Amino acid sequence: MIAEPNSVANLPNHKNAGQHPTEINTCNGTSSLASSPTVCVSKICSGQSPNLTDQILGERKQETAGGEEENGIHEEVVSESTVQNGSCLRNGNVKTFRGKRKIREQCENRRRHPSDGRRPNQLQNGEVVEAVTLFEVVIMGKSAMQSVVDDWIEAYKNDRDVALLDLINFFIQCSGCRGMVTAEMFQSSQNCDVMQKMTETFDEATGLQYKKFMAYPWILTVTWPVDMDDKDYPLVKAGPYWKKFRTNFCDFTSVLVQQCQFSILYDNYLMDTIISLLSGLAESMVRAFRHTSTLAAMKLLTALVNLIVSIDVSKHNLERLYEVEKSRTTGKRTNTRLDQLEKKKKEYEQKHLDIENMMNAIFKGTFLQRYRDIIPEIRAICIEEIACWMTTYPDRFLTDSYLKYIGWMLYDKQPDVRLKCLQGLQGIFGQKALGCKMDLFTCRFKDRLVSMTLDRDHEVAVQAMKLLMLMSQNYEDALSSEDCETLYQFVYATHRPLAVAAGEFLYNSLIVQEIEIEAFSKSNAKWEPNSSQLRALIDFFLESELHSHVTYLVDSLWDWAPSLLKDWEYMTALLLGNADSHEQALTDAHERVLIEIILATVREAAEFHPPVGRGGTRRILSSREKKIQVEDCTRITEHFIVVLPQLLAKYSVDTEKVTNLLHIPQYFDLELCSAELLDKHLDTFLSEIKAVVSKHSYTDVLNACARVYATLCGEDGSGHKKVSLARDELVDELVHSLNQCLDTFWDEGGGLRAEKEGIHHICLMLRRITAFHHAHDLTRWNLYEPLAKLLGFEVEQNPLPVQILWPALQCAYSALLWQLSSALENTSSKESILALRTHLKQYCHICTCYLSHRSRKLREKAFMILCDLLMIISHQGLSDGLIECVEYLPSSSLQSKLLFFVEDHVFAEEPREFRVLTGEEVKKMEEQKLDALQQKRCLLAAYCKLIVHNVVEMTAAAEIYKHYMRTYNDFGDIIKETLSRTRQNDKIQSAKTLILCLQQLFQKHARSQDNSNSINSIDSSFNNIKELARRFALTFGWDQVKSRESVAMIHKDGIEFAFQGIGALEGKSLPPNLNFLLILSEFSNKLLKPDKRLVYSYLLRYTSEPALCKEEFVYSLEWYRTSLLASDEDESSIISSISEWPSDRTPCKKNLSEGSCTKTSHTEMANTPSHAHCPSDLPFLAQNSRKRLKSHDSCHQEYPSGPERLKRKYSIPDGVKVENTVEVLAEEADIDVVGADQET
């Protein structure tokens, strides 16, 4: 790699520099200078600093101790390099006493004659540790950073070459390099040869890498081992220790410039060398060098920017002072003060020029090369620092020529780089004074900034929203109205930080502006900001047309407008019309939205948790948050217990408004409310709720009223007594009215002969009672008996209106659940439990009958209730005594009816209507389709829960799996979850269910093809079955060991199904299911290598039939055989085994069940022809095949004792009949194929 000449092009030559090469060995952190005294002293104990520091300190202690006694020197393996110029050649694997003695003598020499006292001491574990090198100082901490830099400056003034080599060593060590640095003086006669020396090479002979580059006035050669880990150097190491090192490293660079600005910074030697060093390292192909040197160079440039800013300030002050002094002089004589100021001014100008040159050299030599680096961390460093330069020194860097780099990197693929761009731009746009320089940038990159709010990285999207908010606040016309409307909609985003940032943008840009244009009230000159803000918020919500998301809108604004959103007094005053008369009255839409806002704010204040979809687990509230929550709940209870009755009375006929108002009492805390206030207003509140119940028949309103009573009564009945009495009184009235209506209904004969008014009244009472029975235990009113009679009348005699059956079915279900809950709590007598058992069976029979009702809605409701009830009364979660009484598992007939219902109502294709539809009709139809799809998903999920919890047989899932491919978009997630849960319950049975599904589909395909085995019969339907098998195989994942039993069972059942009926054909024709092997081959890649051989040996039993050798069968069998053979060696081994089989032999038929085989009787053996026993071939084949498998797979440990066991079992002792050997061999082979997985 060639170094960039621009970084050193303007550096002057130094003729007084020495001519001798110098070596710096950075192995294990030590420093050895070949031609100059060391600048290090060691007095440390080992084991006190982690990683590299431990080695550094430990070796220095050993070296110091070694100097006390000559015989105490130990051998050391030094990692060194081969220097290309021939001045020094070392082998990294050679043990040398000379290098050790040299280091020891230098350390002893420095300890006796220290040159400075700059090394800081630290106390570690009670012992004093003295840092030796700059790297050790930085890695230990920054408590004495300034004094260390001051000491280094003194050393530089005494011998700048030695001090600079110490600094070079520091940067090399910070890169994590444990190699050698060789420095040779730059000769002017070698100018033509410099470009060739500045290279990076690799020496294959020594295994070392070389980096040769110029650090004026030296040419440095860095040598390090080739196995140096690029991912393990100080800047990227994990842990707080190395994070602190990064901070200290950056601080060291800044302090170095700060302390050198008054002495050696402008000597045309120090900065030239540092810039050349960092530019050379930044061009390395080694990541550690590039990363470390880029960070150092960027921080160095940042320090120079801060310095030049301070110089400009001093220069400006000096010019002002000069003008003052100049105005005081007369033209008669020269003013000495003016000469001094003029001289000082020229000095500042020269310093400014020198720093400008340094900045140009760093920018061109490092930034321009590294801001597009392949490593995202390096790119992020460059962007972060250039943004810092723009805010610190805008006169120089805040120009389009520099802004373009940030604009370009907004399109970076890494989110960290994009994030640094946005954070840097926030610092720029946050200052109004810099806006005049951002016009072209804003025009060019505004669209990109707006689009970044949709970034896939959430933090990038949040910072983009904050940046756009700053642009909108500080610069007029920066964003168009269309841009603002797009950004406002992010208040409905799922990611809460993004929604909160959009809420701040909305509040500052839209809502707060209404306050600025709001004038004082003409009537009383009183400032009313909340009125305009509320109206602006309501208008925004109505214009957004997202009418079910007001909760998310309130949550987005909660952190920015708490005073507005908690002003419930003013909100209710607007609803009641008690606000100032000059204000415009609210429309019906405004009132509806305002009530929704009130409900959302009450919920947010009481729960102190984001709505569903925006928050994870509930966090623990702090003491301050708990205090705020209690205060808000007290305000809510005390205010709405007074106001809510008035609101209910005003909006009692509006279903939607009264429903939202009735949700507010569930956040009451009556214990926090004063007793006097509660007694005064509670009766009025309860009477209004009773009035709402009497006026409405809508389910949502009635359920809300029932929940209000339940909330005020308390879960354990510990609520206010007035509420319980009012509820009981209301239920008594409802039940009495229902009984009267039912008596009249039965007297009139029921059914179609009943009057419509009576039916309507019964329906109304049933809806109200059902709502209350769902939230309250009404068992003492004994509602199940009359409801069961009503439901049974529909089944046995005349049909009843659906509007009666629907609430009756639900109310009876609630009655049974409350009885079952009482039985679970052991509060019911034995007679009650027996009666409950009778009721459960009766109700299940009623629901089963309603599965075929004429109303689809009622059929689906009965199915959902039946599935839930079967889940509840199954053996799951019930005590032993209760199981005996109420256990009710569905019969085979009921399971068939449930499955048929799912097939008919979920997977059946609905007929399409072919007619021209208008736009509104199309929209309405789409909404109906979505509602129907949601209902179908609920039905399928309810049935799949029965399968997962073993309420119905797992084989029923095979009918569900058949529709996996066709209905993947609608029900794929439910079917996959069912498959996963059943596999967790029983792996083997789940595998049998999968193969059963494929077998049924194959048989259906075969019947449609007239049972043809020809390959031409494979059409698209067969390919669909094959694709379904592939999808099933993918569900097993990558862990073949975990799924080996299931996959082996699939292959076993699949092979048996493929060769089903082969014995009855007697070799005259092919089995009808042979092509099923093509489907089965999709599971072969999920078999382990040993299992493939066992499955293949199991396949060999069926492939000896002469009819199977026909060419038309070769395709299916060959395809499956190829999928099982793992390699050519396996294939040759198996083929050689096949050749040993006699050609006139019939196959071994075995009926395998559950992994074992049925033994062949001696009578069957006697009736079988003699050649079928294969007395000379079969035992030999088994032993020979097992030996081949053993020799080929000796490295596998899945069956550690399998080959030995099989060999012992298959050995034929003397005196044993061959017939018995054949029988035992076949039986053991079955166990190996199917049960091998279970043995391991």
Automatic annotation (TrEMBL):
* GO MF entry, a single one: chromatin binding
Q: Name one Pfam family in it.
A: HEAT_SCC3-SA
One annotated GO biological process = chromosome segregation
Gene Ontology cellular-component terms listed: chromatin; chromosome, centromeric region; cohesin complex; nucleus
Q: Which residues form the SCD domain?
A: 367-452
Q: Which subcellular locations apply to this protein?
A: Nucleus; Chromosome; Chromosome, Centromere
Per the record, the coiled-coil ranges are 331-361
Keyword annotations for this protein?
Cell cycle, Cell division, Chromosome, Chromosome partition, Coiled coil, Nucleus
Give the start-end ranges of region Disordered: 1-23
PROSITE patterns under this entry? SCD
Family from the record: Belongs to the SCC3 family.
Describe the task this protein carries out: Component of cohesin complex, a complex required for the cohesion of sister chromatids after DNA replication. The cohesin complex apparently forms a large proteinaceous ring within which sister chromatids can be trapped. At anaphase, the complex is cleaved and dissociates from chromatin, allowing sister chromatids to segregate.
- Tell me, how does this one assemble? Part of the cohesin complex which is composed of a heterodimer between a SMC1 protein (SMC1A or SMC1B) and SMC3, which are attached via their hinge domain, and RAD21 which link them at their heads, and one STAG protein.
**Protein name per the record:** Cohesin subunit SA
- What organism does this protein naturally occur in? Podarcis lilfordi (Lilford's wall lizard)
